[in-house]
Write a structure and sequence with these properties.
Mean pLDDT: 84
CATH topology of the largest domain: 7-stranded beta/alpha barrel
Keywords: Membrane, Transmembrane, Transmembrane helix
Number of strands: 27
Protein name: Glycoprotein
CATH architecture of the largest domain: Alpha-Beta Barrel
InterPro entries: DUF6049, TonB_box_CS
Low-confidence stretches: 1-40, 263-268, 709-739
Organism: Sanguibacter gelidistatuariae
Structural class: alpha/beta
Largest sheet: 6 strands, mixed
Shape: elongated
Helix content: 25-40%
Pfam families: DUF6049
Number of domains: 5
């Protein structure tokens, strides 16, 4: 229920004045407010659940910018958290008229215990006669701002502490003891808006998913689906910030790239993840969006290991407007090695953690959140978040939207007052694990953009601002992060990825082999795996198995040993291809003995899922048993198959011996033929000299079976006995006896 307003009876003016002075002195004493304090307050602890008998929650405070002539309205919810009824409860609204001038003193107000002074009571309202155990009621205070008698002008404007307290009677506490106290803030603004120089506030939040293994989509999808569900963490991050175009996002492209690339559903993701990705892409228009390295790689681990991270992939067309010049290392203080790595990788913007690179403690104001840091690889610009306000965004100490909003705008009022005439830019960030309550985050961001002394601006405005000449703490030279990848693990991942990349040169579509392995190798380096080292180890094991399956797809078919009996020949080598696409490989032989020399390697195309034979020429220069190692190479000469070998029995002298024996046999046969010809004489079948002469003279020669042997002899004898002489001119020559 809502109680009726009942003004407190006022005493005489003199008594009121004395009480006001005493109250102010008591508050100042209890707060221990110094005259000059450093601008940066300590980071507040996260809100804890109160153990007070009564819980008081701020529902609304209006107007949040309270000016002269306004009516201040405060609505609070009061709950009896005990099992005992509270009788005669009374709610009081109190104001501390002291204007906070430093952030340290300001933060001390809400840390005071219930028993500490709450300031001047400006209104007291009785609650129902009995506040039953576990019961809840609502109380509304309404006070004229002018009745608060706060200072005016430039000197008077700024935040004050206000409190809602509850007293009552119970079994274990007296009526004068506060049973519950809510401490929040009122900002008194008795000046014109144009008299104030607002503080530019930039907000950058990470949009990164849980650890994901592309080789195990079934096991990884539930985590991503849960995070992108309507009540999931990523959905809350987007819901908290999408209504504020000035809020920048640092997004892991892996969780939205499938939708950005072709609009199709990613097979490995859930419907919730796909719907969330589409919604997020639509909401990213018109704001600063920074693409983190794919899968949010742990650059701190790479830097600590002295290993360069993989080169960033080109963003899909749908993400082409996203910036890629920012790195966000997951470490409390950026190390010099991380800064050097960022500079060499072409990312000159580095987000520091809240609380890092703090300004000189003697500085009495909050400087712009930029720092220029020189490295051996170039100069980088660090984006330095405000530690206190970033903590309030990440884990508000006030648990209601109205109280969290007042806490945010009140501290910004102090920052604005530190340098009233100077334009400064500050940065607020949230951790990667940020799980906001959208109503609270929206109230905080809306408050920044709804007051005269602050304005919500894009991160690009901060980046373009001048870097202040302010001394800051130095980066760390080294750091140890629990759960981060070791140098050996990173080196192993790179070796696995490189092996598949070299192997893939043998196929016409290398991406079909390298893409799954590259994605898994990048995913294994995600910052998110720090919270689950065992899960990361399992992911690396799956990656190793996948790479082994790929690189063992080309193999040498087992075959028996060879016997080589000639000085020159070819060895047939059979290669098997288990891939679903053809492979072009080079077969090279490496004998382990100089008695066998392998000629030039042979390139062969092995069909998909089949075998092919390559005949490699060899040359024997001796005799013996030789082991020949078979190497299957990619086009660039990289060994891509498991080693294999065959035995070769080199017997090249057998060929020479066989030739000699054959030649000897030919000589023997020739000699035998000549000997037989000489010793057998003329054959009866051979023609006589007379027959030959007749043939030469053209006479007819009768067949042998028609010639009379006797007549033949008689006709031949005279001619043989006395041939007729002839002269040189062919005439018959005179016989000597005829003279």
């Amino acid at each position: 229920m809502t109680a009726l307003v009942r003004p407190i009876r006022r005493a005489g003016a003199s008594i009121v004045g004395v009480l006001a002075v005493l109250a102010m002195a008591l508050i100042l004493t209890s707060l221990g407010a110094p005259l000059a304090l450093p601008a940066a307050a300590a980071v507040p602890e996260p809100a804890v659940t109160s153990t007070a008998p009564v819980a008081v929650r701020l529902l609304s405070l209006s107007p949040e910018v309270t000016r002269p002539g306004d009516t201040l309205t405060v609505v609070a919810q009061i709950e009896n958290t005990t099992t005992t009824d509270i009788t005669s409860p009374v709610a009081k609204l109190s104001v501390s008229k002291y204007r906070y001038s430093t952030r340290v003193a300001f933060a001390g107000w809400e840390d005071l215990p219930e028993s500490a002074p709450v300031g001047t009571t400006v209104q007291a309202l009785p609650l129902p006669d009995t506040l039953a155990a576990g019961a809840t009621t609502t109380i509304t205070f309404s006070v004229e701002a002018d009745s608060l008698t706060l200072m005016g002008g430039q000197v008077g404007w700024g935040p004050r502490g206000i409190a809602v307290s509850v007293t009552g009677e119970g079994t274990s506490y007296p009526a004068t003891t506060p049973l519950g106290v809510l401490r929040t803030y009122l900002v008194w603004f008795p000046v014109a808006d144009e008299e104030i120089t607002p503080v530019d506030v930039s907000v950058l939040v990470p949009v990164v998913g849980p650890a994901f293994d592309p080789l195990d989509p079934v096991g990884s999808t539930p985590g991503l689906g849960e995070a992108t569900d309507k009540t999931g963490r990523l959905s809350k991050v987007v819901a908290s910030t999408e209504e504020f175009p000035a809020v920048a996002w640092a997004v892991d492209p892996a969780i939205v790239s499938a939708v950005a690339r072709d609009g199709a559903d990613e097979p490995a993701t859930s419907p919730a993840a796909t719907a969330w990705a589409r919604h997020t892409l639509a909401a990213s228009g018109g704001r600063d969006v920074f693409a983190l390295p794919t899968f949010d790689q742990d650059w701190s681990a790479f830097a600590a290991a002295g290993i360069s991270p993989p080169q960033r992939e080109e963003l899909p067309t749908g993400l082409s407007t996203w910036r890629t010049d920012l790195a966000w290392p997951a470490q409390a203080v950026p190390t010099t090695s991380v800064l050097r790595l960022a500079a060499s990788a072409g990312t000159p913007l580095v987000v520091a953690a809240p609380g890092a690179l703090q300004p000189d403690p003697e500085l009495t104001y909050t400087p712009t959140g930029l720092a220029s840091l020189a490295t051996s690889s170039g100069t980088v610009t660090a984006l330095v978040p405000d530690a206190v306000l970033s903590s309030q965004l990440a884990a508000p100490t006030q648990t209601s939207p109205a109280a969290a909003r007042q806490r945010m705008v009140a501290e910004l009022a102090i920052i604005s007052r530190e340098r009233p005439a100077e334009v400064r830019s500050i940065l607020l960030t949230a951790p990667r694990s940020w799980t906001p309550t959208p109503e609270i985050a929206q109230a905080q961001l809306g408050g920044i953009d709804g007051v005269p002394w602050a304005r919500l601006m894009p991160v690009s405005t901060l980046i373009d601002a001048p870097v202040p000449d302010v001394a800051r703490s130095s980066p760390e030279t080294s750091s140890t992060v629990q759960g981060a990848l070791t140098r050996d693990e990173l080196a192993s991942l790179e070796a696995t990825r490189a092996a598949v990349e070299h192997f893939a040169q043998v196929v016409p579509d290398p991406a079909a082999l390298t893409t799954p392995v590259d994605a898994a190798a990048l995913a294994a380096t995600s910052v998110a795996w720090r919270n689950d080292p065992a899960g990361r180890t399992a992911a690396i094991d799956r990656l190793t198995a996948e790479a082994d399956d790929v690189t063992s797809s080309i193999s040498v078919v087992s075959q028996s040993d060879f016997t080589l009996i000639s000085t020159g020949s070819s060895l047939p080598i059979t290669v098997h291809n288990a891939l679903d696409q053809p492979a072009t490989v080079t077969v090279q032989l490496k004998p382990d003995d100089p008695r066998l020399v392998a000629e030039a390697p042979v390139t062969v195309v092995v069909p998909a899922g089949s075998d092919a034979s390559a005949k490699v020429k060899v040359r024997a220069v001796g005799r013996g048993n030789v082991t020949v190692y078979i190497q299957i190479l990619s086009p660039d000469g990289t060994l891509i198959a498991s080693p294999a070998s065959i035995g070769v029995r080199v017997r090249a002298d057998w060929e020479n011996l066989g030739t000699a024996i054959f030649a000897g046999l030919l000589v023997v046969l020739l000699g035998v033929g000549i000997w037989r010809t000489i010793h057998r004489g003329r054959s009866d079948r051979r023609a006589s000299a007379a027959v030959v002469e007749q043939l030469e003279n053209g006479d007819t020669v009768e067949p042998a079976d028609r010639i009379d042997p006797v007549a033949s002899v008689e006709s031949i004898e005279p001619a043989l006995a006395d041939p007729e002489p002839s002269s040189e001119d062919g005439e018959p020559r005179e016989h000597p006896h005829e003279r």
